Amino acid sequence: MMTRRTTMSLGVALAAFGLSRRGAGAAEAFEVTKTEAEWRKLLTPAQYAVLREEDTERAFTSPLNDENRAGTYACAGCDLPLYSSKAKYDSGTGWPSFWEPLPNAVGTKADWGLLGRRTEVHCRRCGGHLGHVFNDGPKPTGKRYCLNGVALVFRAA
């Protein structure tokens, strides 16, 4: 039976968990920094929600899922090249997926949520949220960088 004390303790624990999760990446400094107003002016509402608020676009909605030309995928926030088309594959998940980023392109951090711990992937230059990386990808790395297409810009070779 849930008592008032149990309910209050659970609420405090969840609030502390949420605050610690948000604060985990706050101390990291990035080369490209902008105010919230500057980001909102630069990005579309969907890009802002994903890159700056760590939202997730709906599966199977990104035109980049069907992009098969040779080229590079860059950050929609700062245009840093992130992934080569050579590392892209169809994971069947509904989001653009890659087995490897370009050197010195992305950073990662623990992302604690209701489903447990995942590993968040962000642009190493502006800190923009890209998606998550999982250990169920193809060879040679075994990684699946599952990314929001709205966080990326494709540059054909």
What can be said about this structure in brief?
The protein has 157 residues and is of the alpha+beta class. The protein has a single domain, classed as Metal Binding Protein, Guanine Nucleotide Exchange Factor, Chain A (Beta Complex). It contains three helices and nine strands; from the N terminus they run αααβββββββββ.
Explain this structure.
By secondary structure, the chain is of the alpha+beta class. The chain has one domain (30-156): Metal Binding Protein, Guanine Nucleotide Exchange Factor, Chain A (Beta Complex). It is built from three helices and nine strands; from the N terminus they run αααβββββββββ. The protein has helices at 4-24, 36-42, 45-51, and strands at 71-75, 81-84, 88-89, 97-98, 106-113, 116-123, 129-134, 144-147, 152-156. The protein starts with a helix and ends with a strand.
Outline the secondary-structure elements.
Elements: H1 4-24, H2 36-42, H3 45-51, E1 71-75, E2 81-84, E3 88-89, E4 97-98, E5 106-113, E6 116-123, E7 129-134, E8 144-147, E9 152-156
Antiparallel strand pairs: 1-2, 1-9, 3-4, 4-8, 5-6, 6-7, 7-8
Q: What fraction strand?
A: 25-35%
How would a textbook summarize the main sheet?
6 strands, antiparallel
Secondary structural class: alpha+beta
- Spatially, the strands of the biggest sheet line up as 3-4-8-7-6-5
Poorly predicted runs: 6-25
CATH superfamily: Peptide methionine sulfoxide reductase
Radius of gyration: 17 Å
Instruction: For the record, give the distance between the C-alpha atoms at the N and C termini, rounded to a whole number.
Output: 62 Å
* CATH arch. level architecture: Beta Complex
**Mean of residue pLDDT?**
87
Domain module count: 1
